[in-house]
Amino acid sequence: MTDKINVGIVGATGYTALELIKLLLRHPNVQITRITSRDESHPHLSDVHTSLRDRLDLRFEHLEMDRFPEGVDCVFCCLPHAASAAVVGQLLDANLKVIDFSADYRLNDVASFETWYGVEHPDAARIGSVAYGIPELFREQIKTSKLVANPGCFPSSAILPLAPLFKNGLVQSSPLIVDSKTGVSGAGRKANLKFHFPECNESITAYGVGTHRHMPEIDQILNRFCGSETEAVFTPHLVPMDRGILSTIYLQRCDGIEEDQLMDCLNEYYRHEPFVRVTSQIPSTKDVSGTNFCDITVRSCRGTTIIVSALDNMIKGASGAAVQNFNVMHGFEETLGLL
């Protein structure tokens, strides 16, 4: 029988932390031992996440580095950007493995991070050397890492379908348009007027046009698979649903390449991957809701290749990917807690 890994969750009050806890509670090799928040009252888990009543008897505590590492082997860090990197180094110094949900370690260089996120990086020395947490593409690096940068939700929906096509020289790197729709949970749990029900119901709106911070992440990861620099034009849209991402990607095939070759490439690349489903049908967010699947298909129209992908922004786009990374880091079956 495998000994259980003791897990701590830093910043456990949000939606992604809730989904993470649900997944870990059904993982046979995990024991959740610590959860943190900044709440001075130290509430019980079930007072913050009422759906977890009678599931886990823990109270939130403040993150105190002289106490927190006790009884913890691995940490899921669910803090915002910059706040996360400020503590990750201390967690690593305490000999803990860390899966970081923030954007702090996803980009290749400090200058890009500080340009797009507008803050000085608290742990700049590690930038560019941290494994990027898409196991389907970076499994070998993740296996031996103590720190993994969990990917962004929108980038996952674009990188998973595009990386194999770029790697095999089947599509052109420019122009590249990524048009994504997402549910309101992507904005997090903190109150914000534009995400109130009367504001977003029965309405679709674009946001972060030309300025969204996931754009450099898409570019920098895809550049590892492409023979030339990519510059994705990425536009997200808020739609009135709880969860899910549907991305429609427009680009050009290389000369002499047909649509069926793209499907063949994706089918072959992901043939043995349990969480990527290449399908002849058009994916929808309902098909993947509450799962760690990413569904992908390819179409053509008037010489333009159209790729459609769907995933759950809180599972494959966040907490499910984190558990998948956890499994890879610890040598477990990759589907544990996820199927």
Give a topology summary.
Elements: E1 5-10, H1 15-25, E2 30-35, H2 45-48, E3 74-77, H3 85-93, E4 97-100, H4 110-117, E5 131-132, H5 135-143, E6 147-149, H6 153-167, E7 177-182, H7 197-200, E8 205-206, H8 214-222, E9 233-238, E10 245-251, H9 259-269, E11 276-278, H10 285-288, E12 294-301, E13 304-311, H11 315-329
Parallel strand pairs: 1-2, 1-3, 3-4, 4-6, 5-6, 7-9, 11-12
Antiparallel strand pairs: 7-10, 8-9, 10-13, 12-13
Helix pairs in contact: 1-11, 5-11, 6-8
Protein name: N-acetyl-gamma-glutamyl-phosphate reductase
GO molecular function, one term: N-acetyl-gamma-glutamyl-phosphate reductase activity
Function: Catalyzes the NADPH-dependent reduction of N-acetyl-5-glutamyl phosphate to yield N-acetyl-L-glutamate 5-semialdehyde.
Fold and architecture overview:
Keywords: Amino-acid biosynthesis, Arginine biosynthesis, Cytoplasm, NADP, Oxidoreductase. The active site is at 153. One of its GO terms (biological process) is L-arginine biosynthetic process. Its EC number is 1.2.1.38. By secondary structure, this protein is of the alpha/beta class. It has two domains: 5-151 and 317-329, NAD(P)-binding Rossmann-like Domain (Rossmann fold); 153-312, Dihydrodipicolinate Reductase, domain 2. The protein has helices spanning 15-25, 45-48, 85-93, 110-117, 135-143, 153-167, 197-200, 214-222, 259-269, 285-288, 315-329, and strands spanning 5-10, 30-35, 74-77, 97-100, 131-132, 147-149, 177-182, 205-206, 233-238, 245-251, 276-278, 294-301, 304-311. It has a seven-stranded mixed sheet with strand order 8-9-7-10-13-12-11. Helix 10 links the parallel strand 11 (276-278) and strand 12 (294-301). Helix 5 runs parallel beside helix 11. The mean pLDDT is 95.
